[in-house]
Design brief:
The protein has a four-stranded antiparallel sheet with strand order 3-9-4-5, with no helix packed on it. The protein is mainly beta and about 150 residues long. The radius of gyration is 17 Å and the shape is globular. It contains two helices and nine strands. The protein has a domain at about 40-140.
Amino acid sequence: MTATPIPLYRVHVAAPVSYIPTGPTTGVKVGTPTPGSFDPAAVRVVPAADIRPGDVVLGTCQPRHDRRTLMPLDDRAQWVSYFTGTPKVQQHGARPFDAGHCDWCAHNAFYMCITPGSGHVVVDGCTVYPPGALLLAIPRTPGCARAA
């Protein structure tokens, strides 16, 4: 048996919150997933390019940015955001971005200035993720079984 190196990401994932205090007497309501719609213990941080059919995507990990250059720092996440509503199982895996796929993809290509071969990937619903983007997901199969 040979050892296989795996990437480890330094991300602290907390349970979704519906209210964030912004001051001593003020706060903001935040949309959260439907209560009981997933098992929090099954949540993993998965590169967007590794999403497979059957995975459940729950949210995104927002990268921490260097304050001087505004470039993302690849080894850290600043915060995690969950999507609202009941999570849905992915029908298709991540695929390379194709501006000709649909009107929404063409819109994203134009306004986000995405070029062919840029490394961007798309998951169900034609949501575009940049190279190296990390998602909160519940994998259909464990990572060790995927590599086999």
